[in-house]
Write a structure and sequence with these properties.
It is a single chain. This protein has 148 residues and is α/β, with parallel strands linked by helices. It has a single domain, classed as Rossmann fold, CATH 3.40.50.2300. It has 5 helices and 5 strands; from the N terminus they run E-H-E-H-E-H-E-H-E-H. The longest helix is centred in the last third of the chain and has 18 residues. The model has no long low-confidence stretch (mean pLDDT 91).
């Protein structure tokens, strides 16, 4: 589980810190790459901008995607991930504080693999993170990077 990369797309520094603390609290020592806006996320995934030259054969085992992001919103990031053959099959879980049903429906319509509302209390957040990690990083089988 520790060699699988998690891409955390989160613009709120408090939520970023909380997510990383929850991962560590659950003994998940995976590398966490943080993108603070939609452009940073897409640059990382497609090896552009600050991530030009990145080895694109190494993709995140899980992307945790916030919806309300600066520059390019989470739903547009998800749309672009699903539109590109290189990233179409990557597991993407929306992790958001949005309680709007319209966001939930739009997330699934755009191809998210899961939608998790951020729990308010830290113990609940740690438990939600544990369950996400167990499923997506340990139990779930992902397709090969080069899908046939």
């Amino acid at each position: 589980m520790q060699n699988k990369i998690i891409l955390l797309v989160e613009d709120n520094p408090d939520d970023e810190e909380l997510t990383i603390m929850a991962l560590r609290e659950n003994r998940m020592s995976n590398e966490v790459v943080v993108a603070h806006d939609g452009i940073e996320a897409l640059d990382y995934l497609f090896g552009q901008g600050a991530h030009a030259g990145r080895d694109l054969s190494i993709m995140p085992a899980l992307t945790l995607l916030d919806l309300k992001l600066p520059k390019i919103g989470g739903l547009e990031v998800l749309r672009r991930i699903r539109a590109d053959e290189r990233t179409r099959l990557l597991p993407v879980v929306i992790l958001t504080s949005s309680k709007e049903d319209v966001d939930l429906v739009a997330g699934y319509r755009h191809g998210c693999n899961g939608y998790v509302r951020k729990p308010v209390s830290f113990p609940e957040f740690v438990e939600a993170t544990r369950q996400l990690g167990l499923y997506w990083l340990l139990l779930n089988e992902t397709p090969p990077t080069k899908a046939s």
